[in-house]
Fold:
Amino acid sequence: MTEVAIRELSPEDFEAQERELREVWRTPSGWRYWTSVNNTQIGLWYGAAAFTFMLFAGLLALLVRVQLAVPENDFLSADVFNQAFTLHGTVMMFLFAVPIFEAVAIYLLPSMLGARELPFPRLSAFGFWSFAIGGVFVCGSIFFGAAPNTGWFMYPPLATDKEYSGIGADIWLLGLSFIEVASIAAAVELIVGIMKCRAPGMRINMMPLFAWYLLIVAGMILFAFPPLIAGDILFEMERMFDWPFFDAERGGDPLLWQHLFWIFGHPEVYIIFLPAIAIMAMIVPTFAQRPIVGYSWIVLAAVGTGFLSFGLWVHHMFTTGLPQISLAFFSAASEAVAIPTGVQIFVFIATLLAGRVIFSVPMLFGAGGLAIFVIGGLTGVMVALVPFDWQAHDTYFVVAHLHYVLIGGMLFPVVAGIYYYYPLIDARRLSDRLGKIAFWLMFTGFNVAFFPMHLSGLRGMPRRVFTYPAEIGWDWFNLVSTVGAFIFAAGVAVVVIDVVRPKHRQPKQEMNPWNAGTLEWISEPEEAWGVRSIPIIKSRYPIWDQPGLLEDIKAGRYYLPDAQDGARETLVTSVLDARPVQCLRVGGTSILTMVAACSLGGVFVALTFHWWIATLVCALLTLAAIITWLWTGTAEIPRSDMRDIGLGKTLPLYNSGPQSVGWWGMFITMAGDSTAYASLMFGYFFYWTIHDDFTAGHSGPGIAWPLLAVVLFVLAWLVMLLARRANAADHPGPMRAALMVSAFLTVGGCMAGLAGPHLNPMDPTTHVYPAIVWVVAIWTVVHGAVAIIMQLYCLARSVAGRMSARHDMDLQNVVLYWHFFVITAITSFGVLGLFPAVR
Amino acid sequence: MRLLPKEVESLWTLFTAPTIWAAHFLACYAAVAIYCEKAGAEDFTFAELRLALVLITILALAGIVLSAWLAWRQWGFGSGDPPHHAPTREDRLLFQGFATLLLSGLSFVAVLFVAVPLVVIEACQP
Structure:
């Protein structure tokens, strides 16, 4: 980065700039407040909603503990008990643990990276509303006695039994699928934000560790959540239409669900744990008042854990009768993951030893949490050993283990984060006295509640029993656990009181009360613009090492100190060295995100109750809302090509292809989509491995129709490449013709794809083979239909003059979609047509 | 012709060694899972399958060593010590080299861990 002369502004110019910025980033008032898309609001709402869900799930846990306090208790009926523990687990995992990290990330990341906003603020808003609607839907079910009641991992055949599980399983499957959409949206937002929107000069060796962790976690979401979505599709098809994916009598296998669930479920534990430890990686240096010791080692730990966590899923399935050598692979990987996990703890200890430690409430929660987590980690090493797991599986030992890991590794660090970051929200600190009381209540309560569960588990108490006989020797452990649970809950209540108590009599404090070194502390709670001007970063701890930084930022002496065209803007920089490459205009306040989320929510709710017409209407509404959103808010052609961003630098306002954030968004979304597809194909081959003849004598789709589909889709893809070339050469006529030809070919491909299973009549309810063939064909054809919508969209953009040779972002992104789609189509119809013949 | 690739500037080199670990893990798991389900259908024995997987393990370890060597080169063969926090391209490169080297080490150990069952378990269901 070359040094440039910093110019001084006249007071009038300075105030004019501030007025502009304030107007552009203004938070709407009245009911329109809820249409805001600014990261500070979305982050706060997200966090508040997740925290509310947590309190609700905590109350359910207290009900569970009351029921188990004494033997042969009848406080709850068996059915309500089943609903309570299922909802407790589900809500804690899906509505608190994962979303709270999205909330913290959306709130903190822009200022931490020195950006005004993340690249897709409306996507964040859409994600939040999807999450809120889905969450209320899932939680509300218990008030109608309709909550899921088969445990948070929904094992078939119990959960596919309609008589037992009622509508609860559908609420779980559809409600959570909807929330997974929100998580994947957040992942796209975070990856592109961290890679492309850092402040100039913030090279990857200088990124805050929080950003490193979040980058890895977002990548993990992309590969962990889609298998669950694929599993949800199979599960819902079985429940709605009786397609026998998990029904052993008709060739299905309940184990496939366990695989798909845990391919999601185990990485999820680390998706929950890593962001919490990321908060610790920000807190520890502040209270040691020195840079972290072993920055690269933390990167090693984050990346290493991210990868290894995908090789652990079968350790939840040690008792399902898989070959022992398979179990041993997963046992080995489960032991290996302890290495990077341990590295992080040692890095924190080393940093504290090397610095001068300031004891404070955040450190108390952080240290207490790590102590608890270490115990959970050690019992984890125990249950990762197959023979021990055979004894402990499905007992309270596992319940104790998972709560030690999750509460120590996630809840305590999050509370530490609340105490640490609260001044960013309100410019005031939370109470030290209440914080200490809360900590000691939570810490002792937690251990009193959960430590005895190791012992009751070793004495054979199974999970999920609603009561137990008196003479079996579990009574004291359970009574103690219940007492501990209430002490713990009292601690949580103190935290809640501390957060919500009125603080207007408390004076506002200076920014950065803990004297932290990282950039998130430059943000001003009173202003919505994020940073007054985007600084040039030269250190991992810029506030410590760059004297005058704060004053220069506030005086607007850096990049983008104004808002010339009345647009919200932030900088796009290069991945490795953070050189500025583009001035990005991001979406502003809009109600479209809420409309899109509500109508998509309508689709899922209507599906639950089998209201087909309402489903269709909501789906069309969703499509209309999304297309309006894209048409009015994306790929806009700027009035001028370049923008003076200050300090003598001028940047383009429009980029397309790999240069643009939209292209990256599409790439990352499709990576997730491909993972879901790969999971479906895993299902296809899974059925092949478990049967001698996986077609069981049923007719297949034949060879001709699937291969015709492959040919048509490949032709359609080639014509799309021609369309892109014609557009680059500024020949709009041939480009439009190519788009139309390609759309026709795609229609043909879709019809040929469905013709195979339709004309060789394959009835998906008779056996799993026709069912899995239909699912793969339908998945591919639905993607073909989306491809057609995209082609027509590009056509319309071109006709409307919103796309040209220079401004070709739409077409570039659609061609990228086609690259992924053509691979899907070749694999799907190639396998469906040829595999039964060659196997 | 050069034996080793030139230095590339990319974020993705960081992930080479863990990706090799993942591929090796998947190969071991898939091969064994399919063999044990289809036992008897193939015309090779479990011992031969284990031998093949051990060879794959050696290949994977070799790949990781290569990635480690490239990382070591990028780290200037250990010429500078961390923390590599200066705002320069050189320090960014050194940081990438060092972090990649660490990840190669972890991946090497993790591949060895996963290979242990191949050595000691002689049948699908002993």
